[in-house]
Amino acid sequence: MSFIEQYNQISNLVSDDLKRLEQELVSEIDFSPYINTLLKDFLTKNTKRIRPLLAFLYLRASEKEITQIQYSYQTIIEIIHNASLIHDDVIDESTVRRGEKTLNANFNNKTAILTGDYLLSIALKKLNQLNNPKIMTLCSNTLENMCKGEINQYFNRYKLTTIEEYIKKTEQKTANLFQTALEGAAVLSGESNNTNIQEFARCFGIAFQIRDDLINISDTANLKPIQNDIDNGIYNAPVIFSGNTNNLKEGIEKTKSLLNNYIAQAKNALVDLRDNKYKRAIWELLEILNEI
User: Fold this and answer.
1) Residues 166, 139: contact at Cβ < 8 Å?
2) What is the mean pLDDT of the segment spanning 32-44?
3) Using an 8 Å Cβ cutoff, are 18 and 11 in contact?
C-alpha cells in the first residue's frame, strides 16, 4: 500500500470532521472574481490537511467533544498554513505547488502577496471571534516564529549551518504550527496540562519536515521540483551531515536516523493517550513518515 493510500485510510477515520473544516474554509473566500476560483482550488486540491487531521484524531482519542469552535480554530490553522505557502512561493520564485501553477506564476508576485495577506486577514478576523487571549497568543507567537525562520533561512543561504541551527529553523518554520494546532485544540477542550501533546506536536512537526527535506533530494518528489532547495542555497540536514552538495549518501543515512529519533520521541509523548482506534491511527501516521 502506498503512502497516499495509507494516509487516506487514516484520514477516513475523521473524514466528516475534515469535510466540515473544508466547507468553512472555502466559505470564507470572497475575493477578486479573477482569483476566487484559483484560490479555492489551491485551498482544496492535493492537500493533506495534516495539522487538522492530527488535531481531530487527538481530540477523538481523548474522547473530547469537537465543537464548532474547534472547527473554526482548525480552519484558522489551515488558513495560516496556506497563506505561508503562497508567500513562500513568491520568496522561492516557485512556479509549481501541489502539481499546479502557483498564484505568482498565474498572476504576479504582487497579486500573490496580497492574496496571502488576504488569507491572513481572514485568520485574524476568525481569531478575534474566538475571543480567547491564550489562543491569540499562541497564533501570534507562531506567526512571529515562522517569519523569523524564513528570514534566518534567507541569510543562511549557501551556508553549512549546524544541525542544531537546522532543528531550530525547522521548529520555527514548521513544528510551531503543528504545536499551535494541537495545543490550541487542547486548550479549547478545557485541558490545563498539555505538555505531552505539545512535545508530540513538536517532534511530529520536526519529523514531518525532515521527511520533506529527504523527499526534496530524491526521485520520489512529484509535486514540486526535485532538489530545488539545494538550487536555492537552502542546505538542510542531508547536506549538513554530508558537508557538501555533491555526495549526499552519508548525509541521507544520517538524516534518516535523525528522522527515526524524532518519530521515537513523538511516540513516547503519546504514552498517556487512551488506547483506541484514533490513537492507533496517530501511531500509524508516525510509522508512514518513514516511507520515503
Assistant:
1) no
2) 89
3) yes
pLDDT given for residue 26 in this prediction: 92
Do 66 and 173 meet the contact criterion of CB atoms below 8 Å apart? no
pLDDT surpassing 70 at residue 258: yes
CATH number of domain containing 48:
1.10.600.10
**CA 255 remoteness from chain centre:** 19
Residue 231, C-beta contacts closer than 8 angstroms, at least 6 positions apart: 225
Cα angle value 269/123/75 (rounded, 5°): 55
Place of cell 523569523: 148
Number of domains making up the chain: 1
Extract the runs of DSSP E, i.e. beta strands, from 49-174.
96-97, 100-101
Residue 221's nearest CA partner among 10, 3, 8, 50 is: 3
Beta bridge partners of 101: 96
Quick count: other Cβ atoms within 10 Å of Cβ 28?
A: 17
Alpha carbons 290 and 259: distance in angstroms, whole number: 8
Q: For position 61, what pLDDT does the model report?
A: 96
Select from 95, 291, 96 the least CA-distant residue to 208.
291
Secondary structure percentages of the chain, helix, strand, coil, to 5: 70, 0, 25
The domain in which residue 187 lies consists of 3-288
Q: Is 101 helix (H, G, I), strand (E, B) or coil?
A: strand
